[in-house]
## 1
Amino acid sequence: MFKLKNRKNKTGRRATRSRAGDFFVVFFLGLLAIFMVMPMIYTINLAFKPLGELLRFPPTFFVQNPTLRNFADLSNAVASSVVPFSRYLFNSLFISILGTVGHVIFASLAAYPLAKHKFPGRNVMFTMIILALMFSPIILSVPRYLQIAGFGWLDSYKSILLPAMVTTLGLYLMKQFMEQISDSLLEAARIDGANEWKTWWYIVMPSVKPAYMTLTLFAFQAIWNDSNAVMLYITTESKKTLPLALNYVMQGGLPRLGATAVIGLLLMIPPIVIFIITQSNVIETMKSSGLKE
Amino acid sequence: MKKAVWNKINKHHTSYLMVAPFMILFIVLTVIPVFIAIFYSFSSYNVMQQPQFFAFRNLFDNYLRLFLDDEVFLIALRNTFVFAFITGPISYVACLLIAWFINDLGPKLRAWATLLFYAPSLSANVYFIWQYIFSSDANGLLNTFLMNFGFISEPVLWRHDPRYTLMVVIIVQLWLSLGTAFLAFIAGLQGVDRQLYEAGAIDGVKNRWQELYFITLPSMKEQLMFGAVIQIAAAFSVGLLSAELIGRPSPLYSAHTLVMHMEDYALAPRFELGYACAIATVLFSITLGINQLVRSLLRRSSRG
């Protein structure tokens, strides 16, 4: 594609962009940016505050004498729990990675025929997917509880992983993205003797890298941040995850605020890192996210 | 006849095998629960005993009880609507405006700005920090700030005064709401054909707002529709956030939502699962109904 230069007037600005307007935009974005990052910055500061500063009155926003004590204090903060802190971290990483891999495989596999094959039932399936996008699964937590109890999945990771693997947003985005693959490419693969499974793996998957990166981000983020499902379905302490450890430590009040903030920091880092890695892919994928009427 | 059907399935068996893992789990874990909720909403069920299904003439007992006998349900219903009608539209417009403003920045700066605005919904759990910002005593960050600048003379009970609790939840929800829709809008804006802006400038589009209205929005209709669906679903499902920020129950039920009400009945000590399923059914119908309504409004306005 060739690039067109924007039409600019004498001062080198686009004709539709006034100086006053630009000033307003920067001002408005700046104010909002402060509102958005302020809690994050506060969390980071709290994580490095020594006890004296945590208890100081009136409270300060920024840390003055940063310390790493709160990181060491984590193990004390969960000392009355039956499991060490590292277990919560491990559990969180374990279910987030496993659930993400499962979601990406299931969703990409199902998206391919939905995007590229014509078979009876396809439209019904896609309509159900769209309908499911319209409400949050939290609404179904009560009937799902009955069901999970009925299957005997309570207190097992199945109750967290299986619902997370079939989140419809991922299938929807993947299907939309796969529709852009040219049919002649697929046809060529078939003429060369590849069956549909091979076509999926060798032709389709490599050309939807932006989409599976996006699904990775969304699935990881959803499972990593979830506390609702773990609270409802998991009872054994040694199976609980990081967000629940945060609630647990937070009950210690102001003296434990530093340790709480450290957990907050740990919870913040992985999704942000994954987003930094995948951002351009995510935006590429979302270009085809549009919902046709 | 039977053979014809079998032939058809056989012909497409690879397609069915490929969708099977996802679709089977999806039907079991998302579609069937909808029917479970509707089914048990006509019963009284406490897990310990077999569910008692209502006789035909009092089939709707749970629903009648909700609307006629349960004052807290009506408060939760009102709060959920107030909440959704404030956070839904504001977050939608905020997603669009911020994405649009960011789109004028250079690529590097735009990437950082995207990260900055998307960060709260990326790391959603960090909302716990708002408890300390809105802390009701003089130790709270916001109270300290306002008192330093002389706006207030004594601490405001943000999380305990029924006048403020819902507002606190709304602010934090807005903070969390630049999510998937925001990313979709950023992508949609980048996908607008630049030649259209050129043509518009020649045709007399004078300022950025006219450009937005006449060129940009019509070229990203599908993203706008997708964003609406996502934001509405989010606006009606708030529960945990309110429970953790304000408490369960909140003072005078001032921040009580339908999701919280449903969980209150489903969990210990009540275990009234039939009743909780009736609440789930109401909430489900509202969400889907509003979603269809907004979609048809958007469709009509984009044609008109």
Note: The mean pLDDT of chain B is 91.
## 2
Amino acid sequence: MIRLTTLWTPARQAVLLIALVACQAAAAGPEDDRKAFVAYFQARFPDIPLAEYVNGIYAIDQDSREQWQEIEEFPPYEFAVEQGAALWQAPFADGGRYSDCFVGAEPGVRQNYPRYDLATAEVVTLDLAINRCRKKYGQAELTFGGEEMLALSAFMALESRGNPISIENPAGNPGALAAYEQGKQFYYSKRGQLNFSCADCHVTSAGLYVRADRLSASLGHPTHFPVYRSKLGNMLSLHQRFAGCIRDVRAKPFALQSKEYRTLEYFLTYMSNGLEANGPGARK
Amino acid sequence: MGLRPTVPVLVSNKSFSTGYSALSVVCVCMLLLIDPVLATSTGQPVCQLPESSQGTEQQRYEQHHAAAEGLRQTAAARGMEWLATAGLLVRAREEADGGNWPAAQRLVYKACLQAEQALKQADREASAWKHRVVK
């Protein structure tokens, strides 16, 4: 008869422990990542309700929040939204419409983007979907970050307000999971001459000051774009914000809607799953 | 052997003493990160440009420019190019066109060092990012 004590030696215990940890690491998928991400910020800022993270830095910085609330009384993005509504309703030359390209023929679909497109095996953002629609109906594609694209996405964001972000779990498809992992790697990788990762500022240093401004938390970041930036005097897309951050750490930015930014948006938006879409926003 | 431009030694490892505050050390480290020429003067790794005493100044410059540009393109292909590298090479070309070879070589050297450090960063981050994932 084999005695239990002979099986349960310290060496075997160590091997079992390592195997257990390895199995857990391998099993850690997007949903585990999201739960850990949310838990981190809830532990870091225990007084901030989860739903408040959609307001970016204004969830954390109470002084700036009061100014922001005053700005929101006369939203500076209103003109962009009106322009976007007109663009949405105008038929294309061949009679097609934007509504023909989106589920339910409704503009309020921001919460479902980005999504992994099985047919093309790539991450499709809302901006990319808008241009795909135009291409389908023989229209020239809009410039990413251009006035018309920002206006359309601002209108669609407004129509999506209150809908919970609903990105499908990438774990269900190997291609989607690979794209998610690329975005995750980008997010956590240090880059540029200043050797900073996205997480260095928006996870580790969230709430701390950089010069006179406080750093926002990544949780909820994608819910409120596009935003009107007061300092620029115009609308700004999420990818333009990415490019700004990349430039700030002295790395060369990527093109808007590049694979790098689309996978980053995919990862970041999945982290905010369940939070309400509340774009467009107003920022300093 | 790498090219070492003649620069005044502004900072030296020997200048540190126990009397210096931790803040000073941090400041100097940040300066070294930002300015590759300062880094060189403190014995940090130098950019490996092809060494040659043959040919004219222009030929040597072209050789160094091509080497630095090659490193920049490699860093770009890995998605890790630094912001200023391409601009340094453009400025180097402008100085070379004006016949100012020392200035042109100095700029090429800075670009080369930036590209080299970007590639080291890419190598490091290929696995280091995993340790930062929120768990």
Note: The two ends of chain B are 44 Å apart (CA to CA).
## 3
Amino acid sequence: MLSKSQARLFFIGGTCFFSAIFLGLTFHTLGQVDARQNLDLLTAEVARGKEIWDSNNCMGCHTILGEGAYYAPELTQVVKRRGKEWISIFLRDPQAMFPGKRRMVQYDFSDEQIGDVIAFLDWIGKIDTNGFPPEPDLAMAPSLVVQASAQTSAPPAYFQQVCIACHSVGGTGGSVGPALDGVGSRLTAPELDRWLADPPAVKPGTAMPNLNLPDATRAELVNWLSGLR
Amino acid sequence: MKFKSQRVAYLFFATSLLLFSLQIVYGFIMGFAHLGFDVLHDVIPFNVARTTHLNLLVVWLLSGFMGATYFIVPEEADRELYSEKLAVVQWAALVIVGVIAIIGFHLNYWEGRKFLEIPRPLDYLVVVDVLLFLFNVGMTAWNGKRFTTTGSVLLVGLVAAALLYLPGMITFESQVLDSYFRWWVVHLWVEGVWELIMGGILSFLLIKLTGVDREVIEKWLYVIVGFTFLSGILGTGHHYYYIGTPEYWLLVGGVFSALEPLAFLGMALYAVTMARRGGMSHPNRIALFWTVGCGIMSFVGAGFLGFAHTLPQVNLWTHGTIITAMHGHMAFWGAYAMLVLAIISYTMPLMTGRKLFTGWVPEWAFWTSNIGMLGMTGAFAVAGIAQVYMERKIGMDFLAVQEAIEVHFGGVLLAACLLTLGIAMFIWNFIQYGLPKEEAMAAEHLRHAA
């Protein structure tokens, strides 16, 4: 039967042995990790972004690399998912983007700070994470019936980066605002233009914020939306 | 209580229970926010509530461990504490650091690093505080008449925990390395050296409560903590799956964290077997309940529920979801919260000389709080599984999923009410015991003389 001194030897020996392996693997990992995290892309901007990320405890609600809290979205691939344009609009006034929904603290970041945060998140998204977060493997394809009602020409870049977060077309997109299928047959081009210029002025209390669109972008959007019949 | 200075443990236990109550309050704030009522958003936004909830947990457990150590080490060394005054100073320092940290969190003064949110200047104060503590108990052991395995394992655990706090104080520009070394603290604490502390305290309680021969209990203590490190050190790999570290961590982390439940199974078998061997005849039955319960629930929460999502094939989908909260609640409750409640239940009659361990209050405190925690874990599990399928597998929008699983937080809150009721009864019992008394010591001496 096992004696106490044998048990002690098992504890001390095992601990030393596995600590040594752990230190060895750590040493090896430190050699590998620079390439996997693209150290050459870790600019001063990215470092400042991390500083902002840490000092405001963003991990207290969000996760990155799957680490943090579970109250707000996973942000590892957020730049790929939302685009830089959308994130910078969102960060200026987080509550305007999802009115009446779960709230984020209004941090009043400067444009430069927003750029830093986005640079940090962009860098995070490029790390080789062994496949995390995974692509949904049970995702349903949008139905053909809905697709048929959509425009045939490709949507403007701005639409795909920003509008899509709240509105859907052809079954893809957000559900905060109404689906835009057929909006071109419900509203005329001047009506669409007036709406996009300042939604709260047209309909006080609307959930849609004034996005301060440049004239060219607004014209492009109106043109494309009018084609959704 | 054999030595007068052991009474200093009371200060730490009272602090523990106070902070635990506060932790529950912040838990409710978060539960309501998840349910859609973030009414305190402008004053206590979610990240403040969350950070306060986590750090209160860490501090109340540490305070409980310190109290336990101040009680156990004199007994194992068979002498008074090196300095009772120093222990009081150390307690005051701990409280001051804690209060500053908690207030700081509400003023956006923190580091956004999960579990290690205490800002850097305060980290240095923590180090000083822990050194004071280790010096005091270390000197007691050093000058002691004897030193036992139980005491040594406890002290080795405490020293190692202090050393492992240091990697968390290094600054990194890279999120990957930041995360890598953050887990040296967090993982190697709760799934490593804290288990030594847990083993030491459990062993002390089992020796006292079961009357089984010390040699037998301490032999198995070595085996269990041996398994802890055999699996737990390389088990750190389960935090290195997806943070930018090489792929071999999937294998290393998977294999060794799959072995981690063995250490907790050991703890459970250890507690149950020794209690049965002792015949469950100790008059302080409720302390034995908490001790055996700690062994069993730590296996359920830390061992079984940890295993449920630790394999990389599973973790790829569940990483960073409410599944983690499900495991976390039960694991900390079973392994560490119940341990502190066990040592409090055992020591209070000895420190105060009052035998308030019979009757329905302490017993209902045990059952109600445990059933409450099981209920919370169940509700978190349902919410987490639903989240994983909707958000990760089907690809639904985050907020849409959160609205769909909102209802389960109603379940979490209802179960949390039961837990709160149980803890309230425990605290009521604690208050009824009153303060430590010197007569309690005299009574003990008489008993030993007889």
Note: Chain A touches chain B through 70 residues (CB under 8 Å).
## 4
Amino acid sequence: MKKRATTSASAGRQRLDNLAGYLFISPWLFGFLALTVIPIIASIFLSFTNYDILSPPRWVGLQNFKKMFFEDPRYWKSVRATLYYALTAVPLRLIVALSVAMLLNTSRRGVALYRALFYVPSVVGDSVAVAVMWRQIFGGDGLVNAFLRLFGLPGKRLWLADPQFAIWTLILLAAWQFGSAMLIFLAGLKQIPYELYESADIDGAGPVRKFFSITIPQLTPIIFFNLVMQTINGLIVFTPALIITNGGPLDTTNFYALYLYKRGFENFQMGYASAMAWILMLVTALLTLVIFKTSSRWVFYESEVK
Amino acid sequence: MKRKLISLLCLALIALAGAFGQTKKVELKFAWWGSQVRHEATIKVIELYQKLHPNVSISYEFAGFDDYWMKMTTMAAGGQLPDIMQQDYSRITEWQSRNLLEPLDPFVQNKTINLSDVAKPILDSGTINGKLYAISAGSNSYAMMLDVDAFKKAGIPLPSQDWTWDEFEKIALQLHEKLGIYGIGGGFEVDELAWKANYLSDGQFLYSADGKSLAYKDDALLVNFLKMLQRLIKAGAAPTYQEYMSSFGGATGNVQMDAIVTGKSAIEAVWSNQVVTVATAAGPGRNFAVVHIPRHKKTGLPGNFLKPSMFLSITSQSKNKEEAAKFIDFWTNSVEANLILNAERGVPISAKVREALKQTVSPINKVVFEYMDRVAKDAAPTPPPEPARHAEIRANVYVPLIREQVFYGVLTPEEAAKQLRIQATEILKRP
């Protein structure tokens, strides 16, 4: 591009350019403001009101928060269920993702095909269709029970109606949808300098030693990224719980986002739902902050090597 | 270029003419919730109405129950409500209190809506503070659906209209012992039956007249009922709650999965307007009878009342109220329309239509019609519409406490009933 002299004419030109730029992004900007920013701001206000959509919001101060923390047993159940899910599903998914990534990090023939195949569950991942399929698989006459019967086992357990097992069907689903984390791990694995393994070989290190002393430390930035993303995803899990168990049995899968949705859109308690949403947002931010703060102790960046 | 211009002009002219033609047409909008069967029948009735009234064009919108209310609530906030909307017994008070519904009395007085063939109690159910706001789209009542062939096979005579819960329990056990099937299907712990009908049969309402507190005196009736269900489950005469939820449509509310459909049970609790759907799902060659909900004493009240299954009402945001009223009149009084609707929203409220339909409907429809005639003569007094917070109490208190924690064995019936009273009172008391 040619360099422009700073005359008033070119300043006008600059303004015009800016205007054109803003015009070009205006559809997005409009959507962002109208559908994201303004509702977010509105929800801060709504969280201090009673609002059922039909009549105007009524200011109630901190009553929604008080009710949430001290008077709503289902709220704490949903918090517990969500934390349980996040603490099991996220590590499980990361472990599966890393294992598969390491299997695929070879130069065998057909690896590209497998890579694509393993990624498929995540492409269709959060969809209703997969959730419906999962419901069938774990249903009373579903695939899992049929499989158990094949080996002479009773195969009569109602997985989705069992307070002990229902949440595990959802955790399994999460573990199965490891695709995006797996791809990121795979990219990370390819970045690890081959010399490191070579010199380890010369020093006589076995595969386990190499994994823990080279692969894991070298991967920590990637693990860090995946951990943050997956934790956020885990805390806002919604679709599978809505479709597969609808929060039941005994509220064991009534995850936070699902309960929020039910309060807002089934009971029309928008104020309460907004208050819940802000607590979720604060907790998510806080957890992410904790992960970030601790990261300096365990995340290793190549650039830090002096 | 010139030719293009001319053709463009022509197009504009046509559009203009079209617009003029349109302005003469009355445009109405009608919204309802329901199942696929209902959508198809309702659309057919709309088409019939448009054929008979070429000057009226009706657009429509339909959805499942929850989505419907989400949509309507949003539309109400935006002043976009349809002219005619289907209303629910448990929500009508709330909507009326927000001035969203139009009183229909003027249209009844000027005979736009003819209600001369409708009994007064049916109209009362849509009356709030002395004004008529909604017209029942059909009458409904909870019912015990019986598999006649199973009873015959077990050698048990069909129960009479005045059967009691004691007899009910005995029969359920006998059916189980003699046939090896469940005596009763699942879902008997539902609030409509275990809570509302149970107290109704004792002459008590759940809620006080102002809807600010619970009205029933003690928890014993509810506790005893839940204990009876627990006994039946334990004896194998009823499915466990888990089995009901996952195998018999409990989770989806799909009556086509009821245990009676596949002959796995012989008694099922259903709404009268669902009987036909269940019987159709069971297939040809099966025989069903329908009787009252059992009562506490032979001489006492049944738990039944004539419930408007749903209403039609005109919204205050409508611009064509007179035309909307004409459609409601057609809906209520046209035999032809009701033949299409096939009592899927409940038994028609007009006696004339009812008589006409009786001549033509299928045998199972006739069973329902006759049942509703019996209920009309032998019913508990109609309770007032539920307070606006009933939906919240049901979703956040009744279902988790009574349906789940009792039948998963977490709480005893006594403890759950006590909790229910405490938590429901708390919600009702809130300003």
Note: The interface with chain B takes residues 52-55, 71, 74, 139-141, 158, 160-163, 246, 248-251, 262, 265-269 of chain A (CB under 8 Å).
